[in-house]
Amino acid sequence: MNLHGRGPQSTAVLRAARPRRLVAWGAGGTVHRDDEHEVARWCRLLTESGIPADPAPERLLIGRPDTTAVPGHAHGATLVHPGAASGSRRWPADRFAAVARAERAAGREVVATGGPGEVELARAVAAGAGLPGRAVLAGATDLTSLAALVAVAGRVVCGDTGVAHLATALATPSVVLFGPVAPALWGPPRGRGHVALWAGTTGDPHADAPDPGLLRLGVAEVCQHLNAASAR
């Protein structure tokens, strides 16, 4: 099965392997549509291929990972994840720092996460917020331990990136900042403790500079929704 988007190159590789059956866009008459939410799209691929699939939000949940190794101060903390694969989806570090400062002022612990290439970004956010060194957990996690951090967090604030999907899958309240891509295509399910903020414009999701729409999202709005998530 090809899960690489439309994936013509990937599909060609799979066809060359001569599988007994290929489930991919274009195989068996399936048609990829750009106006569908990703969950609905992949479930439709399966159902149109004769494989039952349920796109209901509760089906997106995964089992809670082992959290025994998670540092105590991360339990119930606000998890700030400032990175994203492309610059167009990265909200400025100084704004994440301002959010982190507000969270600390509200009496909530804050931790900053990121991949190996985002350690300096997380440190910049922590420094701008006046967080202690222990708050920076970027570069210290693999996927499993990152999932554990998300599972124990009180709330997550991040851009349109993988951590947002972990928050959805682990039912951790989240505030997700969208820029060049509409949350109707990639966002979390509504009304389940997740908030998708979006200025209503689209752009290039692979651009190097922050998307103009993303920059229209302000610190006060993000803090408001984090406070609401904490009050639940």
Brief account:
The protein has 232 residues and is of the alpha/beta class. It contains nine helices and five strands; from the N terminus they run ααβαβααβαβαβαα. Helices cover 36% and strands 9% of the residues.
Describe the structure.
This protein is of the alpha/beta class and 232 residues long. It has 2 domains: 8-55, no CATH class; 72-231, 3-Layer(aba) Sandwich (Rossmann fold), CATH 3.40.50.2000. 36% of the residues lie in helices and 9% in strands. It is built from 9 helices and 5 strands, in the order ααβαβααβαβαβαα. It has helices at residues 8-16, 38-48, 93-105, 119-129, 143-152, 162-169, 183-186, 212-215, 219-231; strands at residues 78-81, 110-112, 155-159, 174-177, 194-197. A 5-stranded parallel beta sheet has the order 2-1-3-4-5, with helices on both faces. Helix 3 (93-105) packs parallel to helix 9. The protein is globular, with a radius of gyration of 19 Å.
In terms of quaternary structure, what is this? Answer: single chain
The CATH fourth-level homologous superfamily of the largest domain? Glycogen Phosphorylase B
Helix content range: 25-40%
N-to-C SSE string, H for helix and E for strand: HHEHEHHEHEHEHH
Largest sheet: 5 strands, parallel
The CA-CA distance between the termini, in Å, is 40 Å
Number of strands: 5
Low-confidence stretches: none
